[in-house]
Design goal:
The complex is a heterodimer of chains A (395) and B (427).
Chain A lengths: L1 H30 L4 H9 L5 H30 L7 H18 L4 H30 L3 H21 L28 H5 L12 H18 L1 H11 L1 H6 L4 H17 L3 H8 L10 H11 L4 H16 L1 H6 L6 H27 L29 H8 L1
Helix pairs in contact in A: 1-16, 3-8, 3-11, 3-13, 3-14, 4-5, 4-6, 4-11, 4-13, 5-6, 5-11, 8-9, 13-14, 13-16
Chain B lengths: L16 H7 L2 H24 L7 H26 L7 H19 L1 H25 L4 H23 L21 E2 L10 H7 L5 H10 L4 E2 H19 L1 H11 L1 H6 L4 H27 L10 H11 L4 H20 L1 H24 L3 H20 L5 H4 L2 H12 L20
Antiparallel strand pairs in B: 1-2
Helix pairs in contact in B: 2-15, 3-8, 3-9, 3-12, 3-13, 3-14, 4-5, 4-6, 4-12, 4-13, 5-6, 5-12, 7-8, 9-10, 13-14, 13-18, 14-18, 15-16
Classes of the chains: A mainly alpha (395), B mainly alpha (427).
């Protein structure tokens, strides 16, 4: 019971948000003469045979892995009040360079995969580092610079794909890089289905799941159990207090963005190593932007992000069945958008309720999304407890 | 322009006659010098590179066309941020504006498209105001959610209304807008005898460039475009010369003080953010006018670029107009001629050479060397590259924005309480 009581406030807001979002999207659908219950029915229909059901699960988990990594990358920066909108460009550029390097070399399997991962991480961290350096040295808002760098990254990626990294023959309908040889491909995890006696689906469960889980645990430990994580959170909550206690604010910006970028570099790899083995014109796009939503829904905590990623992956899976059943598949995007809006509103309400119930005592600031003033990055986010002093100063 | 900015009253020591001529004598003279210097620089680059597209009237009219949506988005951001609400959702409101314009436009023509786009954008603004002002949600978070939501809503509505539509259209586009807004050309100068056009064709140093610029903004210009440009001085007058504007800006500087003086802070913020959405939506309408049709992803990040123009312009109407113009020009250039973009490298080389000399005079060796190295690299690029591949050229405007933002001096001052959630009685 005590565990439940401890978790209830943390769970209340997201659950409430999802319910509210479902109600709102149902109302929108109903207003436009689409039966919401039919739509939700299609979403929940995983097929009849065991194989179909397990396949649906695999599709969801495979989609959730990159979403989880994207959410993690955004959340690391968020924790410090930095807004990394550039995840999209970071992972796309990292993936195409990693794909090209992976196809160009031939190494023993573990080394080969390791090299691809390292290349992706380094490229994405470098790209995120530009944002950090511009912010620290020139005071350029990270929101603006990372958006501009997104366009530059996508343009560069399309140039690389059609130019130097092109591996597909002239005139092919889909342009792609050369295939990564088998030693650089990551085996699937379908063995576990046999262990549990489940039907073995035709699709492979990405082996990258293990790496993603390890990265998630590492980030959780780093953020919650180390000096670095404490400094990072402190800088996010009150930059002035953090620098007064000896945190190098500029160094923190650079380190945080590099870390965020490094995780962003992994986003494209589950698909690259486990399925496509090459970067193509239609390689999975938009994960960086979805990552922002996933991070918000998961309240910037690795475990929460994992659940949020699964929820979004579940919604994404229903795109194809909805199209087949002749429903507007953009319902999925609307549900996702309303969930994000509802969750931030619910977080804010939960925070206020929490503050009121703990009024007078030592009110723990139940972490609302620690996003700062992303618009410009000049004015520090007000620390939750400082409102009284501010009023005193103005009086 | 009398504002709260601190005025420097103490006389500065003279720094030589040339520096005095260039930097003294108030803002008007400085801006005049800046424009003249820019024109001169472009003339030199055009003459050396032979790229007439750099200052041709067709490039200039395209630049005007492309600058207007960005400028409108930036104006929207100005209203919102001057009232203390950061608006990352401009992009989403612009998307809603394009959809509204397409929907009203194909049925009732261009006038209805204007109304529809502004209304849809204002709806997005209302949602943002609801989330940030009433519910106190973090402004950036709400803006991001609106961007996601707007893309979904536009797609959803298109699927509902445009598939199986007798007038045409589909999942990603509307039927064509049924009428075009009227356009005019300045008599004698830009049409009929077309004196400016003649002068431009002569390719004289400086004079032809000036003629190209003037003809570009006076020939075949839609009346609504002129009205949109006029919104910039109008915004200045509204925000800096009326009681309403003063109250609105006070909400962005010190909402608690404004509240204590009887300014209805919540209501002012609502009004500002709804106007902001309407202006962003209007920007979307102009994108629809350019294409004559609503297309998915028509905005292509222009709302974000408007935000960049706003910051570049130091949260002031004149500055954001300059930012929008710069971006529109870079965009027009990359659309019109891929070889002309290479000529920009020469421009960059010249500018960096000037920066290097200036920094060397101020004994800042590191900066001078850095500028010289990058300038030399740009020069080598100009001399060796004939034509850039399409992928690279496509991000010319974005790279320009990034370079300008990082090279421009960052003495920017945002509204004091911008982005802070204001709760009555709490702070």
């Amino acid at each position: 019971v005590s565990v439940l009581r401890r978790l209830a406030p943390a769970l209340l807001a997201p659950v409430l948000a999802v319910v509210v979002a479902l109600v709102i999207s149902s109302a929108v659908m109903a207003a436009l003469a689409v039966n919401p219950f039919d739509v939700f029915g299609v979403m929940l229909d995983f097929g009849d045979s065991p194989t179909q059901q397990v396949t649906a699960m695999v599709v969801i988990v495979n989609r959730a892995i990159p979403l989880f990594l994207a959410g993690l990358a955004v959340a690391i920066a968020f924790r410090m009040g930095l807004f990394n909108i550039g995840v999209e460009g970071q992972y796309r550029l990292a993936t195409i360079v990693a794909a090209a390097v992976g196809a160009a070399v031939s190494l023993p399997a573990p080394l080969h995969i390791g090299l691809i991962v390292v290349v992706a991480v380094v490229v994405a961290a470098f790209w995120a580092g530009i944002v950090a350096v511009l912010k620290v040295t020139r005071g350029v808002s990270e929101v603006i610079s990372s958006i501009m760098l997104n366009f530059i990254a996508l343009g560069t990626a399309s140039y690389l794909l059609t130019g130097p990294f092109r591996g597909s023959p002239e005139g092919a309908s889909i342009i792609s890089t050369a295939d990564i040889p088998p030693s650089g491909q990551m085996p699937g995890l379908n063995g576990i289905f046999d262990v549990f006696g489940l039907a073995n689906p035709p699709r492979q469960l990405y082996g990258f799941l293990i790496i993603a889980a390890v990265v998630g645990i590492m980030v959780a430990v780093l953020l919650n159990r180390t000096r670095f994580g404490f400094d990072l959170k402190a800088s996010g909550m009150s930059p002035s207090a953090a620098s007064a206690s000896g945190v190098n604010a500029r160094g923190m910006v650079i380190k945080t963005m590099l870390l965020s970028g490094a995780v962003a570099g992994l986003i494209g790899l589950p698909d690259l190593l486990g399925n496509t083995h090459s970067y193509t014109t239609d390689f999975t796009a938009g994960l960086g932007f979805l990552g922002i939503a996933v991070a918000l829904l998961g309240r910037n905590k690795p475990l929460g992000i994992a659940f949020a990623a699964l929820l979004f992956a579940f919604l994404d899976r229903s795109l194809v069945p909805l199209q087949i059943a002749d429903y507007p598949s953009s319902v999925v995007t609307i549900v996702q958008g309303t969930i994000v809006l509802a969750v931030v509103v619910a977080n804010e309400i939960a925070r206020r309720v929490g503050r009121r119930s703990a009024a007078g005592g030592t009110a723990a600031p139940a972490g609302g999304p620690a996003a700062g003033d992303g618009g410009t990055g000049v004015v520090p986010t007000p620390p939750p407890g400082s409102t009284d002093q501010r009023q005193g100063a103005q009086a | 322009m009398t504002t709260v900015r601190p005025t420097r009253t103490e006389p500065q020591p003279s720094r030589g006659p040339i520096t005095d001529l260039l930097t003294r004598g108030g803002k008007g003279r400085r801006i005049t010098w800046l424009i003249l210097g820019g024109l001169l620089l472009f003339s030199i680059v055009r003459t050396i590179s032979g790229e007439d597209a750099l200052t041709s009237s067709s490039t200039m009219s395209a630049a005007l066309l492309l600058a207007v949506p960005i400028g409108l988005a930036a104006l929207g951001g100005l209203f919102s941020e001057r009232a203390g609400v950061v608006n990352i959702g401009l992009e989403g409101m612009m998307i809603l504006g394009t959809w509204g314009a397409g929907f009203a436009g194909y049925q009732w023509g261009w006038g209805a498209a204007l109304v529809g786009g502004v209304l849809f954008g204002a709806l997005g603004g209302l949602l943002h105001a609801l989330a940030t002002v009433t519910f106190g949600v973090d402004h950036v978070v709400s803006g991001v959610a609106i961007n996601i939501l707007a893309a979904g809503v536009a797609r959803f509505l298109s699927e509902l209304f445009y598939t199986d539509n007798a007038a045409g259209g589909g999942v990603t586009q509307s039927p064509p807008v049924s009428s075009k807004p009227p356009a005019f050309s300045l008599p004698v100068l830009s049409s009929g005898p077309d004196l400016l056009g003649d002068l431009e064709q002569k390719h004289w140093f400086l004079l032809s460039d000036l003629a190209g610029v003037l003809r570009g903004v006076t020939s075949g210009v839609a009346i609504v475009t002129v009205l949109a440009v006029l919104l910039i001085p109008v915004t200045y007058l509204v925000l800096w010369r009326t009681a309403f504007g003063l109250r609105l800006r006070s909400c962005g500087e010190n909402p608690a003080a404004a509240d204590s003086l009887g300014v209805p802070v919540y209501r002012m913020k609502y009004i500002a953010v709804i106007i902001s959405g309407g202006l962003a939506g209007l920007g979307g309408v102009f994108l629809v006018f350019i294409a004559g049709i609503y297309r998915e992803n028509q905005t292509n990040g222009r709302g974000f670029i408007g935000l960049a123009a706003l910051i570049f312009g130091n949260w002031r109407p004149g500055g954001l107009a300059a930012g929008a113009g710069l971006f529109g020009f870079a965009d027009a250039l990359q659309l019109r001629s891929r070889t002309a973009v290479v000529a920009l490298l020469l421009l960059v080389a010249l500018l960096l050479a000037a920066v290097a000399v200036w920094q060397a005079l101020r004994r800042r060796t590191l900066q001078a060397v850095l500028a010289a190295v990058f300038g030399a690299a740009a020069l080598v690029g100009f001399l060796t590259i004939d034509e850039l591949p399409p992928g690279i050229v496509s991000f010319t405007p974005h790279l320009t924005t990034l370079l300008v933002l990082s090279l421009a001096s960052q003495r920017l001052r945002m509204p004091q309480a911008d982005g802070l959630v204001y709760r009555r009685g709490e702070s």
